[in-house]
Amino acid sequence: MDFHKKKEKLSIPLTNTTANNMQQPKETCTNLNCFFCLMKEPESAIRREGIANCFKEMPFTNDQEHVLVLSGLWNIAMTQPDDPEFPSLGIFNCTASLIHRGLTDRDWLLRDQNLYIPYYAAHVIGSYTMNKVEFAEKAVNSGVIQPLMELFRGKMSWVEQRVAVRALGHLASYESTFESVAEYEEEVVNLAMDLASNCLEVVYVNYVGEKDKSKRLNYHCNLLTRGVGGIEMENRKAEEWASQIQCWSLYLLNCFAIKERSINLMCKKEFLSDLCGMWGGLVNHTSPAGVGLIRILCYTEIGRKRISESQEVIEKLCNLSRSSDDWQYMGIDCLRLLLNDFDTRYKVIDIATLCLVDLIEIRTLGGKKNIGEAIAKTLLMDFRQTKSKIVDGRVERALEEIWDLKVERRRKEKRLSNEKVEEKRVLVSLIKQQGNHSFSVGETEEALLKYTEGLEICPMRLRKERIVLYSNRAQCHLLLNDPDSAISDTTRALSLSTPVNSHSKSLWRRSQAYDMKGLAKESLMDCLMFINGFIGSETAKHVRIPYYAARMITKQMEISWLFATARSKTASDHMDKAKQSDGDDDASNNEESNCEMLRMITKNKAFATGLSTIVEEPLMKKSGSVRGKLERSKERKNAGLATSQ
Hints:
By secondary structure, the protein is mainly α. 66% of the residues lie in helices and 1% in strands. It has helices at 4-7, 19-22, 35-40, 44-57, 66-79, 85-88, 91-104, 106-109, 117-128, 133-141, 145-152, 158-172, 175-182, 185-208, 218-225, 231-257, 263-266, 269-276, 289-298, 301-308, 311-321, 328-340, 345-356, 371-380, 383-389, 393-413, 418-440, 444-457, 463-479, 483-496, 504-516, 520-535, 547-560, 564-582, 587-602, and strands at residues 364-365, 368-369. A two-stranded antiparallel sheet has the order 1-2. Strand 1 (364-365) and strand 2 form a beta hairpin. Helix 7 (91-104) runs antiparallel to helix 9 and helix 29 (463-479) packs parallel to helix 31 (504-516). The longest helix is centred in the middle third of the chain and has 27 residues, at 231-257. The radius of gyration is 29 Å and the shape is elongated. It starts with a helix and ends in a 43-residue tail after the last helix. The model is unreliable at 1-26 and 585-645 (pLDDT under 50).
């Protein structure tokens, strides 16, 4: 719809309306069907009949207070989504009709403040269908899907698409209402894929990237912040909403994927590549985002086949598996599913082995026990046959190492007496001290050899000693400019720590190693965990975050900012247009253009801010539906940190 000019003339609606506020009518109200007066009616039967009539008449009457009513209903639906009163009185028929009228009657939409009504109406539908299957069934029977689909198709703007995909995701998550959404299956899946892939660029280009506040759509600003805060608050909220659009689009796709529907569509090479870069970010840390869908696809034969053919996806899964991300266990699950399928095992084993070998000593992760043992069994399940099929010598050595650690060495160490273990502990400590001395005098390579010697003789049960040796050896690798080896050793140290990923020095060292490789998100996650160790310690009453860590976080947040790719692409597009208009200039002009593009890409670091400021609802929360299958489990890192000496 081309109504942007008239949108700017609309004033701010009265939001923040509560149920209590709604019960206070105007002093001179003469409308017998006034919603606010009816809310105050003490007689329940009269009030219910009046509200039901109000819902029936609202879509067919012209009243400037309609937006106030919808705003109030939005608030009630958000705070009391399980209250059956309004769903039983026809609120779904009312909201569906209001959305339809907004899409078909342009004059009405642009009158008064009616422009806000489709957004509020779709939001009300989504809130009431969030938890209760009976509400979802009533909504479907009331005809909400068709108007929601119109909003989902982008008939208004990205703001309305957000609440439409949210509501459709709730409806698709129940067995009894899924088929009603699936009537549009191919279109829904294609729209959700497109929205998940492109929504960040759309929000950036149409809102966040528009620095002139006067050029932003006024009603978008009002809906985002409810009239609170300035442009920084709007940008933070827009970042949160953009992430929600992406994650809710993926959730809608999950509802189809978990039923093995439209798998071929979702497994397109381009979309799988896009999925790798989708994460909830700091503003939506409750959603597994792209890896959540990849994991579901890995449970299907077609999904495993297509994913195993993408080296990019496998490498991303490996990076996730060796990170402190909350969804680390999902990355491990995906790799194990691919390795357990003999049709895909040998397509991924070279890359996956070099990653998973560092994780074989994890005990508990994501609420699951004996993760390391399961990884080792997966890698060794055809050990002798696998060796003959391996070309890469590093992979063969890694499998030999796993066999030695989990079979040969374990068998030998079972016979070690406590006295012998203690003797080895003393010897390992002496070797470590020699390594520390070599390191302190600048003999890094000699120190590395000493730490390796210590690891070779250190009994497996001495986990704390091995953590220190691995972590110190990783520091040597960093100084020798070998980030891959540093990542491997720090990951082994973090796998041995209790809980997993709690050894402070290893987190910082791995963060540096990932930074050296240009993996900003992984570096950021480790650095945040490193700082959490300071904040969560018992002596953290007046803790100061180390400057070097704060600087690393600032750098990585800028690079991994949710809109970083969109910002870069927009800047590049601007430069391409400038070149087309100016023609071929000389080298000096080209240099100036490159400088200008760099300036556009790197400015406004303030956008890379932290958590969202206005919270609506947890993204992944539902019992008795598909949502229960999309698990999330976060291990708390409250134990004391192991330290190296």
